[in-house]
Amino acid sequence: MKTIHDEMALATTHPRASAYTRSARAGMLRAYRAQADDGFTCKRCRNFVSSAVALAGVLNRNHCPYCLWSRHVDLYLPGDRLCACKAPMRPAGLTQKQTRKKYACHRNGELMLIHICTECSGISINRLAADDDPGEVMQVFESSSRLDLSTMSRLAAEEIQLLDMRMRDLVRMQLFGNIQVIQRSG
Question: Residue-wise pLDDT tens for the chain (186 aa)?
Fold first, then answer.
């Protein structure tokens, strides 16, 4: 009896399989793995983290939605899980996903978390998940203004644009929506 793994292997190694087919099949395999995985316990805050796509909204969950710490697991591509380091990665700041869409607004890219490995100093950029704590994301954004000069230089050298306090309103709007806070007089 053929399993999904047999079908994926055949579809991705067959000489007539196009790059698109291989990519689509690989995506399906990642989704299959994500659904089969129940989750993990955060090494930082010890909370259980669900890997269910329906909750997180992402296929490759590797950071905690409560404390936003991650684990150094991916080496080349999101979800490849090939990194041998496996050390904790601290959330260092936010950036925006760079889009190549012709008519996309430059300032409305998806917010991304910047993680820095506590052991090897590797840098990783991860999508925010639907269940990430927006208050915690805002704290990471605000604390990024206190990053040391060497970290800021490394990010710049890797062409990662750290969002600064001038982007505060944009970050708040993407996290909390376009709501106005009504102050009570009294």
Answer: 444 444 444 444 545 445 555 555 565 555 555 444 578 899 999 999 988 888 888 888 889 999 999 999 888 888 888 889 999 999 999 999 876 665 655 556 889 999 999 999 999 999 999 999 999 999 999 999 999 999 999 999 999 999 999 999 989 999 988 765 555 555
Is 115 inside any structural domain? yes
Q: For residue 168, what are its two tokens? A: 């505060």
Total domains in the chain come to 1
* Three-state DSSP state, 179: coil
- Give the residue numbers spanning the domain of 160: 62-176
Contact between 96 and 111 (Cβ < 8 Å): yes
Q: What's the rounded Cα separation, in Å, for the pair 123 and 186?
A: 48
